[in-house]
Amino acid sequence: MADSRSVRIVTDPAVLAALAHPTRRRLMDALRTSEAGTVGTLAAQLGIAAGNISHHLKVLHEVALVIEAPELARDRRERWWRLVDSAVRWSSTEFDDGPATEAIVAAATSMGLDRQVELARRWLARDDRESPAARAAFSTDTWLTLTGDELDQVAQEVQQVFFRWRERTKARSGSGESEEPSGGPRTQVFLFARGFPAQP
Q1: Per-residue CA distances from 186 to 136, 147, 179, 181 (Å)
Q2: 35-39 contacts: CB < 8 A, separation 24 or more?
Q3: Residue 47 DSSP SS3
Q4: What are phi and psi of 43, to 5 degrees?
Q5: pTM for the complete prediction?
Q6: C-alpha to C-alpha distance for 150 and 156, rounded to whole angstroms
Q7: What tens digit of pLDDT does each residue of 99-157 get?
């Protein structure tokens, strides 16, 4: 299994093209939260036909974003899949300026933002406002004046916070913790942060 702190820096347009698809983004999210899955479990979790799941896993496998996890299989017919890296990151400056590559970068960036907004809107439309996790939900933003290097440092520090909490989650699941935590039951949470040049 990949180190949970590993971040793949994407510099190949083919990898970015594989990422620029909403179903593949959902697949990667599902594997990120469940650690591994079969075509059947992923199809049931996402409500997508198994044939489509197989196709998109193949695309992700061809660019080394997912790998098989044969140690999880109970027999030769069962195939489990997991992510190679815990996160992927890219910058438009890492790619050539050709129009085809620019279109791929724009599509992947736009699709990622669409996914983040979709999850936020789905949360806002929910009826559940009373659970401890719902009461702790937050939104925050600020304005800063930074150099490019300083913005990159902010990004790394935010990512370190995410990784630190991900490590705690993995440590708890590996310990077989059975007692309910004092803050109420744990639930799946989505976190995202963005930083970019802008004007008010």
Answers
A1: 12, 38, 11, 8
A2: 35/1, 35/82, 36/69, 36/72, 36/80, 36/81, 36/82, 37/80, 37/81, 37/82, 38/78, 38/79, 38/80, 38/81, 39/79, 39/81
A3: coil
A4: -60, -45
A5: 0.81
A6: 10
A7: 999 999 999 999 999 999 999 998 888 877 777 888 888 889 999 999 999 998 998 89
Pair of tokens at residue 155: 């990004």
Please compute, for residue 68, the number of CA atoms within 13 A of its CA located in the half-sphere on the CB side: 10
State CA 41 to chain mean position distance.
18
At residue 81, φ and ψ (nearest 5 deg) are -130, 150
CA-to-CA distance for 87 and 65, rounded, in angstroms?
10
113 touches 192 (CB < 8 A) = no
Q: What tens-digit pLDDT sequence spans the chain (200 residues)?
A: 445 458 888 999 999 999 999 999 999 999 998 889 999 999 999 999 999 999 999 999 999 999 999 999 898 889 999 999 988 888 888 888 889 999 999 999 999 999 999 999 988 888 777 778 888 888 899 999 999 999 989 988 998 898 899 888 777 776 666 666 777 788 888 998 888 888 87
- Per domain, the residue ranges of the chain are 1-125, 129-200
CATH topology of domain 1-125: Arc Repressor Mutant, subunit A (1.10.10)
Task: Give per-residue burial for 163-190: e unless 16+ CB within 10 Å, then b.
Answer: beebeeeeeeeeeeeeeeeeeeeeeeee
Q: How many CB atoms lie within 10 A of CB 42?
A: 22
